[in-house]
Design a protein that fits this description.
By secondary structure, this protein is α/β, with parallel strands linked by helices. The chain contains 9 helices and 7 strands. Helix 6 links the parallel strand 4 and strand 5. The two termini are about 25 Å apart. It is an enzyme of class 2 (transferase). This is Class I SAM-dependent methyltransferase.
Length: about 260
């Protein structure tokens, strides 16, 4: 029973290197940061147009399904422009209980969050907070942009209190070849063209092409689940709320008491 999870967890990167965009892991870090910094002003506009219904309302509902409640202290990793953080602030009832962490200063500079939310520059693999500090951890559609799932998930475990909850929102490829083909046409064909019309930044078209390539190359859901379990989380599950739109996944887990 132990051999399979060890084999799954061995590949720690969320996807293979995408060498059409960067040469190696070190170059990837700089590429991703520059890409998000340079397109931050366009991000919310594009997300609103093509977000598959994944706006603040959906994100808030996902947080509540995973166990976020009033009074909890939450860290949102990969906070970006604050879509998850805004929903979290409404649920916990006090914006000062919400902390956002992101490696992109440009995205955080364009974040629309309630007064009181703390925004801190940092990466999923090195969260700048002490052990057992938060009651809840969230990540909205940023899993594909970290460098090491195992290191990041262990770091998530470290900053959470015993009994704390976790919710990772992610987009995954449809299981059927036809569904994958249609989504690819939409994400890598239509969306970049749309970016030429509504986007204001030069790199916005590239951002959404890269977005699809990371979705297509990302490790399968069972690997994400296995790596969360290997990092010490329990009750790990992949929840699909909208069965007709099964590309939207919610990974839920608990840190043991």
């Amino acid at each position: 029973m132990t051999a399979a999870p060890e084999k799954i967890a061995a590949a720690q990167a969320p996807h293979v290197p995408l060498t059409d965009y960067y040469a190696d892991e070190q170059a990837r870090l700089g590429f991703v940061r520059e890409m998000f910094d340079s397109t931050a002003e366009d991000y919310d506009r594009m997300e609103h147009i093509l977000g598959f219904g994944t706006g603040v309302q959906y994100r808030s509902e996902a947080l509540e399904r995973a166990g976020l409640k009033s009074g909890m202290r939450i860290v949102d990793v990969g906070v970006g422009t604050g879509l998850v953080a805004r929903g979290a602030a409404q649920i916990v009832g006090d914006a000062t209980l919400v902390t956002g962490v992101d490696p992109s200063p440009g995205m955080m500079a364009n974040a629309k969050v309630p007064t009181g939310v703390t925004l801190v520059e940092g990466r999923a693999e090195t969260i700048p907070f002490p052990d057992a500090h938060f009651d809840f951890l969230s990540m909205g559609y940023a899993l594909r942009h970290i460098s090491d799932l195992s290191v990041a998930f262990s770091e998530f475990n470290r900053v959470l209190k015993p009994g704390a909850k976790l919710c990772l929102l992610e987009i995954t490829c449809p299981e059927s070849a036809w569904g994958k083909f249609l989504l690819k046409i939409y994400m890598k064909g239509f969306v970049p063209l749309l970016a030429l019309v509504v986007g204001r930044k030069q790199n916005t078209r590239q951002l959404w092409r890269y977005y699809w390539d990371t979705i297509e190359a990302c490790v399968p859901p069972k690997q994400v689940v296995a790596t969360l379990e290997a990092a010490g989380f329990t009750n790990v599950r992949r929840h699909i709320e909208h069965k007709g739109l099964s590309i939207l996944a919610e990974y839920q887990a608990t840190k043991p008491e």
